[in-house]
Amino acid sequence: MTETNEHLQPDGQTGDERRLPPAVLVDSRASFNEMMAALRQEPALALDTESDSLYRYFYRVCLIQISLPDIDYLVDPLRVPDLEPLGALLADPAHEKVFHAAENDILMLKRDFGFSFANLFDTMVAARILGWRQVSLAALLEKHFGVTLDKRTQLTDWGQRPLSKAQLSYARLDSHYLLPLRDLLAVELKRRGRWREAQESLASLVEVTYVEKPFDPDGFWRIKGARDLRPAELAVLRELYLWRDSQARAANRPPFKIIGDDSLLRLSQRQPRHLNDLRLSERQVDHYGDSLLAVIRRAQDAPPPQPPARPRGGNGRPDPNVTAAYDRLRTWRANRAAERGVEADVVLTNDALMGIARAAPTTLEELAGLGILGPWKLEEYGAELLDVLAT
User: Fold this and answer.
1) Are residues 329 and 356 in contact, defined by beta-carbon separation less than 8 angstroms?
2) Can you spell out the DSSP letters for 311-379?
3) Phi and psi dihedrals of 270, rounded to 5?
4) Angle between the 178-191 and 195-203 helix axes, to the nearest 10 degrees?
5) pLDDT (tens digit, 0 to 9) for every residue of the chain, 391 residues total?
6) What is the pTM assigned to this prediction?
7) Could you tell me what percentage of the chain is helix, strand and coil, using 3-state DSSP and rounding each to the nearest 5?
8) Whole-angstrom Cα distance, residue 128 to residue 130?
9) DSSP letter (8 states) at residue 206
10) d(Cα 65, Cα 176) in Å, to the nearest integer?
11) How many C-beta neighbours within 10 Å does residue 253 have?
């Protein structure tokens, strides 16, 4: 295994990172096996991931940070592609896995490696249940450990190799403090009688499922200012939007790296005929100028697009009884959240409230049968919810 301090002295390390023992870069099968032997001996491990979504159309997990109390591992899945032993550990309930803002990490690890999970702790979820106002990892580390994260490094290209000194230094800090932060939060949750609530919320994290979102050819309607365009301009915007996605796929770059939404909107309005009129960067004109002009010319003969139909339920009109019940439940939730000093969705999400409003249960048994509330929330809020519905 490679200790990253060999590569991080001096300009790649922050003052916070220099105080820590060396991080270990896991970039071979031998170093991976050595790491796994250490992980299996520990009851808890902290994890984080980095991906290249800002630089690739087909983005992927590019680094997995794993921390134990006395060592930090930086696993390079681009160099060690077979991570099945790690997946088995993540699915083992005997080992607690600690994340911060776990959902996206879990979804990406499920998508890229087919991992499943058990026994999770999310420090952001716990902090929100406690009503802490600043719940970003950077804010929590600065407040409780005096550590400052340089978040600019997060925006760099994690798919490049070799990773820079600054990237390696930043990455290990993202997971290093999660285990002591977890212990701090657990003590506070238990002290304030919120441990059961936290356990119930955390248990649902393992159920999140990655769903591939296909490209939406009508996505141009969501560009700011699109609905202010004239029909002929909308036809150009649609063709430019479709063209941009095809270019992004071919180059494996995010669409905004090809050309931004603002530029698409301006081109749709102005509809230039010559390269000098495109008013784009020199690189964009060199790479895409002729193609853009051809798309604009073709789109000028295309029929204007029709706005997508809005989804409707039943007869197309919301049930007034459901709407009224939902509004009453939202008012109850706002009051309950204010009493606790937490964000409203910590009490119940909008989806949960709507599900309850539509079902209109009249007994605790019926409410429990919906499968919307766990045992703690049913016990804590069930009778109040039924009172609100009966109003």
Assistant:
1) yes
2) P--TTSS--HHHHHHHHHHHHHHHHHHHHHTS-HHHH--HHHHHHHHHH---SHHHHHHTT-S-HHHHH
3) -85, -35
4) 130
5) 655 433 333 334 454 555 787 799 999 999 999 999 999 999 999 999 999 999 999 999 999 999 999 999 999 999 998 999 999 999 999 999 999 999 999 999 999 999 999 999 999 999 999 999 999 999 999 999 999 988 889 999 999 999 999 999 999 999 999 999 999 999 999 999 999 999 999 999 999 999 989 999 999 999 999 999 999 999 999 999 999 999 999 999 999 999 999 999 999 999 999 999 999 999 999 999 999 999 999 999 999 999 887 655 555 567 899 999 999 999 999 999 999 999 999 999 999 999 999 999 999 999 999 999 999 999 999 999 999 999 8
6) 0.90
7) 55, 10, 35
8) 5
9) G
10) 9
11) 16
With tokens 């031998």, the residue in question is 30
State both tokens at 155.
């925006």
Tokens representing 53 are 């979504």
